[in-house]
Design goal:
With 365 residues, the chain is of the alpha/beta class. It is built from twelve helices and nine strands. It starts with a strand and ends with a helix.
Amino acid sequence: MKEHLVSVILPTYEEAENIGIIIPRIFDVLKNAGLGGEVIVVDDNSPDRTAEVAAAFERESPVRVHVRKNERGLATAVIKGFELARGTICVVMDADLSHPVESLPDMVQPIINNECDATVGSRYVSGGGSHDWPLFRIFKSKFSGLLARGLTDLSDRTSGFMAIKRSALEGVLMDPVGWKIVLEVIVKTGARFKEVPILFADRQKGESKLDVRVQAEYIAHLWRLYQFKYAVTFQFLKFCSVGFLGLIVDTVVLMFFVEFVRLDPRIAAIMAFSSAVTLNYLLNRSWTFDTQGITRISTSFAWFLGVCLAGLCVRLGVMHLLIEFFKMGIGYRYVFASIFGILAATVFNFMGSKYLAFSAGLNRK
């Protein structure tokens, strides 16, 4: 078998009892499979001397230990491991022996054969499973995976065991929350993946890190990933929310200047429109499209105002067509014509704002 350098990344915190067992087992499995490899231990300054136990292997094996003193978290530890890796294939696995070390060749070989860019160890494909899990534990795992169904076709969406070409990680911005780095990598890289059946085992030594805080971080992480994968949809929803707020502001300002300042309603409408457009611009720039640091205000505001005025023309044009050709001006059906006009104008305004008013290419500072 052709030798490929595999970088096995082990994120650790208080795994002194397990790290001394798993490191030699990794090298034995890789050697028997004809694979060259290294082990990278990224430790979060464990008080139980995990780093020292791992460092003892540096003299006899290609082991590197990196201790983080000002940062915590499994996912970010793995990202640091990616940065340190020298192998053409990176493997991520838990250091508590819950992931079967014997499956390493099965995880790496499909990538070597160019069948995929990444493999994920799965408990939920044929041949996979978990050792003696209680029903509630299975339910929690399945439910957690169900929450991520809209992100990937993986059957085991909460797996923590994966292998991936290091080249697939280049140029990809990772910003995970918590511990589900595999989900982060699969969604962000868009890598071709294959699931490999594994038998997951509960840790025998040490304490589990899963608590309520970790579960809350998982929900926050999912929210980020959904926003990443469905960025345009989320932007559109934000844009509509801002537009609704602008409508409220428009109405309040209009009534204020008419009822309290006694301005002519047509003059007050200009004041109301100006207030709403300005608010909408500021919120869309800072929140919806998040271009605050890269777009010039004067230019992008001019584009935004132009788009809004053009959107008004779209609304009136749609209303005219519906009233003239579909007779929606009869009775109160003109209201429906107005609604369809508003919907068309909203889509137009969104596209114009995204690709003109808040386009960094057109309005870069």
